[in-house]
Amino acid sequence: MIAARRGIKSLEKRHAVKLRLSYTKVAEFQNRGAVHFHALVRLDGRDPTDADAILVPDPRVGAQRLATVLRDAVTDTRLTTAAHPARPLGWPISWGEQVDPRPVRLSRLDLDDTGEITTGAVAGYLAKYATKATEMAGHVSSRLRPDTVRDYARHDTHPGRQIDTCWHLGSRPHDPEDPGADEWDRDQWAETWGRLQRWAHMLGFGGHFSTRGRRYSTTLGALRQARRDWRREHTSAGPPERRRRPGRRRHHRNHRQLAGLCRHRLAHQRRRPPGEHRRRQRPSPATRRPRRTHVARGMTGETSTGSRPTEQTGRTMEAEKTKYLSVAAAAEYLSTSERFIRRIIAERRIAFHRVGRHVRLADVDLEAFAQAGRVEPITRASVRRGVA
């Protein structure tokens, strides 16, 4: 965005206007293991006297001009990495050729009463891409260690070769014969090329999956700070009568009653003969209550006494039967496309579970979603009832 803002500066000088560029973007993993960015870029007018004002930009600077600026910024942006033992001059890094800036086409459902795009439409557009993690490339694992990396760095798969390359490039070189002659500092290596091993489970990508400009919307850091401030304000302050004074113990009526009851029981036990409190009178076999033994029969949940299993046992059996499916498996389960599954997840039309950065759907939720859309057939009886 630094290069894009430079292009916006040239448009300001050319047309003698004040402009502001704001954005939000998400990272999406493709099937080939590469990271694909989807960004929403907004161009506003700028008032030098009021920094918080949002103005309509000049008509001479439209969507086509903005698309040209973004395309030139992506094409001109390139860098060279730091020196590596395998390549002392570093590797050149640049964006790919798949650059497609286009205006966002909205429907009536995406606009509010004033004709402006709603926040729900923006969140729904980005959420369907934010749910695509490394499982799209066929790799799912937690952070890798030296004792577990060999299980995933297999050369017969493309993600395995990517993990092996990350681990190889992130290994700090050293001379076993002369350890003192190592020119690569351990701390410096851990902050540069060593990060490839830390993010090998993400195929080398260690960036944020979602970032946004401060002018576009609030940031996650601001939300966390607001939560901390609210928690600190509501925990430190309270009603004056409930605040405890330092060095003074609080005595409650229930505490005094509990202390009196303990003293009464202690005095009652002291009046017993020695050893009497250790003897316990057992009920006779005639009055003893029979013990109920439950024996499961098959998968029906019945017991030998005819009673139903407890609620905890039912929940355990239900949890054992529940299967959690990925987006691809859920699409195959419902015989739909993956895009449809991601859309209903983004629109919160179905319940789902977050497992780290992965999204999983329970088969019971998928079955309930399918049953909710069940349409009964038309019969003669239903037609008669409708006519009547």
What would you report as the Rg, rounded to the nearest angstrom? 33 Å
Q: Based on CA inertia axes, which overall geometry fits? A: globular
Helix and strand content put the structural class at: alpha+beta
Helicity, as a percent range: 25-40%
User: How many β-strand stretches?
Assistant: 9
What fraction of residues sit in β-strands?
A: 5-15%
Order of helices and strands: HEEEHEEHHHHEHHHEHHEEHH
Characterize the main sheet: 4 strands, antiparallel
Terminal residue distance: 66 Å
Q: List the uncertain runs.
A: 240-255, 293-308
Strand order of the largest sheet: 3-2-1-6
Number of helices: 13
Overall pLDDT: 75
Describe what this molecule looks like in 3D.
With 388 residues, this protein is of the alpha+beta class. Among the domains are: 2-133, no CATH class; 311-372, no CATH class. The protein contains 13 helices and nine strands. The strands form three sheets. A four-stranded antiparallel beta sheet has the order 3-2-1-6, with helices on both faces. Strand 1 and strand 2 (35-47) form a beta hairpin. The radius of gyration is 33 Å and the shape is globular. The protein starts with a helix and ends with a helix.
How are the elements arranged and paired?
Blueprint: H1 2-15, E1 19-29, E2 35-47, E3 50-55, H2 63-76, E4 78-80, E5 92-94, H3 119-130, H4 158-169, H5 186-191, H6 195-198, E6 210-212, H7 220-236, H8 253-270, H9 311-321, E7 324-325, H10 327-334, H11 338-346, E8 353-355, E9 358-362, H12 363-372, H13 380-387
Antiparallel strand pairs: 1-2, 1-6, 2-3, 4-5, 7-9, 8-9
Helix pairs in contact: 1-2, 3-11, 10-11
